[in-house]
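Lab meeting notes turned into a lecture example. A postdoc, R.K., suggested we walk through two folding results consecutively so the class can see how the record format repeats. The first protein's sequence and structure tokens come next.
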Amino acid sequence: MTDHPTTRSGAGSSLAYRLDQTRPYAIGLFRIVIGLLFACHGAASLFGVLGGNTAPAGTWPVWYAAVIQLVAGGLVLAGLGTRSAAFLASGSMAYAYFTTHQPEALFPLQNGGEASALFCWSFLLLVFTGPGALAVDRLFGTRGGASAATGGTSKEREEQGAPVRA
């Protein structure tokens, strides 16, 4: 008997195999949504759009946070330098949470810091998972090398977010 997931007995392993095959696309969609939402926060603070109040240019930390939100959110949305942009975004949200929200109360529900906490952990997750599918980074072959040009091994393709068929 081979070790191919579809030849194993039980419907659970077949479902798990199919879900594993779509993981890069789920991560890619997650990245796009989180990046868009974060960029919208930055645009609202910088330009007063979407019901936001414009932060005066150069004011610490509001204006700088808005620039990070717009730029890092846009980069994450596009999947360009995702891990670095997500790391910066996660750190900025951790800073926002601990300096603005946490002194008010211990839990995010009590101190109004749910958005900061969720963005922080979402971006930290992207630091470790990478951009998933549908990322601009894939066009430039940032995971390059000879194996990228030839398609690479199935493990390398899986790490790059491409579905792998056995």
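The second example is placed directly after the first for contrast:
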Amino acid sequence: MSTENTLEHKTTKANFDGKQEYTITVYAENRIGLLNRIAIIFSKRKINIESLNTSPSEIDGIHRFNIVIQESYEVVRKLARQIEKQIEVLKVYFNTNDEIIWQELALYKVSTDEIAEKVTVERLLRQYGASAVVIRKDYTVFAVTGHREETDALVKALEPYELIEFVRSARVAIIKDSAGFHEKLKEFEAFEPGEELVENEFLDKGEKIFTM
């Protein structure tokens, strides 16, 4: 499979002169050891992975990896080529933030008494688009879905109210200008069709063949 035909990127939006945030999307078979081999590709080049998410894709048996890094266009392009050399990898995309729709989920645990005494829950939920996941006597858990700036804003807002725990998920992203990987698979099958089924000429003729 040609890497040149599978890598897709709108170069008019890329910053060729410096680093920026890229999301690398990998479609691959879900095989043991693949994630480790992909991680080694980054570690050998001393590139830090800021976010990594893996999940099933729209195609049965095919998983999707979303990897976020801060690098230059040329470095990301070479990384994508290396990832595509893995035998389980079917396709690699890399995109800037302008070319994708993405979200992250964040959870916040705070003292219920602290929240009740110093700020109304309704105002907090309304201001930051948060939802109360769990409300107990000892603590309350809020959830926010959005971009990094939005989830960070609530962290700062809750710091005066005894923020007990904070956790944020990896990025999930969808490419804006994409018809879906299943359409790309159709192109692959048309370009590289599998071998035609050859009918066994001796099928159902066992008695004639094996008669002594």
